Amino acid sequence: MTTVQQLPLMFLLCSQTCVLLFLLWRDMAPDVKQWKRAVNDEHTCHCNVTGCGDETVQRQKINRKSKRNSLPQYIDERDLRVILGDKSMCGDVALIHAVFVVHSAVGNYPRREIIRQIFRRDPYYKTYTTRLLFLLGQPNEMKLQDNIIQEFRQYGDIIQGVFLDTYHNLTYKAVMGMKWISQNCRNVKYIVKMDDDVIVDLHNFFTHLYNMFRSSDHTIICNAITQPKIFRKGKWGVKKHHLRYYKHYPFSYCSGFAVIIPAAMIPVLYKATLTVPFFWIDDIYLFGMVRRMIPKLELHDSGKKYFDFDGNEILKCIKRAGCKLTFASLSYNKMLYRAWKEKQKHLNH
């Protein structure tokens, strides 16, 4: 056969080969449309978008059977940007004994104001050098944001991030605070992380806890929780693909309503968060998953001697001699100030 006569046959063979390769590729390769949709979802539905902060955002990989396999998400430093914050907060003294970092919801102005009054009026606020900071995300309403800006101008003690202020974004709030402190508060001995419904007894803190561990840079002091149950439903519900086959967390962690951290460990903890897959429960993430990445960083369980969930206990404890209870969770705003006043009366007597 001549070359010209062979052309149709060669074309037919090439066509058949191309069709066969296409069929093989279709069976083995990911569904491109689904892949693009998954990636777009990940970029669109992120922690700073309304309605998306209440779920752990994860990239999705589509296999040849169109099933989605979760890949771990890591914290993106772009989501830790600060839009309000006074960088000079820690820069005017040689040593700060403790910075109290309060996780607060954007609408909890009354609680922040009570905590400010307690710190301003407590005599230990003047004896020791301390700083008070409130960590916030962004609200949904512009009017509320205007109020926060005004509050910042008045007090200068707010650190606000770009993410939405939602319950499932508490890990972003905590890591943002660590990054900010790492960059702006290097002259600090201790960082005290606490919630805005917690009362702190500054007398007991500086008399007992501060002096007890002031020589250690590798001990986190808290109410430690050992082998807690993993809930799959409810407020603390964890998706079934997280820690699959586990009924209990395989590590101890701190109950996050109050945690005392050596300031020297804050930059180390922050850098470790960039290497540990994201988990939305901040206490478990920071003081369990991330802490385990740092050699020799240990938890000291101070239990109910210094930490208590029951706010009524602090009112009872104040009246007893030798009460060392330092942190207690109080659900009502008025109880915060009442407990502090009762303590001051006891000290005066």
Major sheet, described briefly? Answer: 8 strands, mixed
**What's the CATH superfamily of the largest domain, by name?**
Spore Coat Polysaccharide Biosynthesis Protein SpsA, Chain A
Total domains, how many? 2
Radius of gyration: 26 Å
Name of the CATH class of the largest domain: Alpha Beta
CATH topology of the largest domain: Spore Coat Polysaccharide Biosynthesis Protein SpsA, Chain A
Structural class: alpha/beta
In short:
The chain has twelve helices and 13 strands.
Describe this structure in words.
- By secondary structure, this protein is of the alpha/beta class.
- The protein has 2 domains: 27-73, no CATH class; 77-233 and 249-348, Spore Coat Polysaccharide Biosynthesis Protein SpsA, Chain A, CATH 3.90.550.
- 41% of the residues lie in helices and 20% in strands.
- It contains 12 helices and 13 strands.
- It has helices spanning 3-28, 32-44, 109-121, 124-127, 142-155, 170-184, 202-213, 266-273, 282-290, 303-306, 311-318, 333-348, and strands at residues 60-62, 68-70, 82-84, 96-103, 130-138, 158-164, 188-195, 198-200, 219-225, 253-262, 298-301, 307-308, 327-329.
- The protein has an 8-stranded mixed sheet with strand order 3-6-5-4-7-10-9-11, with helices on both faces. Strands 8-13-12 form a 3-stranded mixed sheet.
- Helix 11 links the parallel strand 12 and strand 13 (327-329).
- The termini are far apart.
- The model is unreliable at 23-71 (pLDDT under 50).
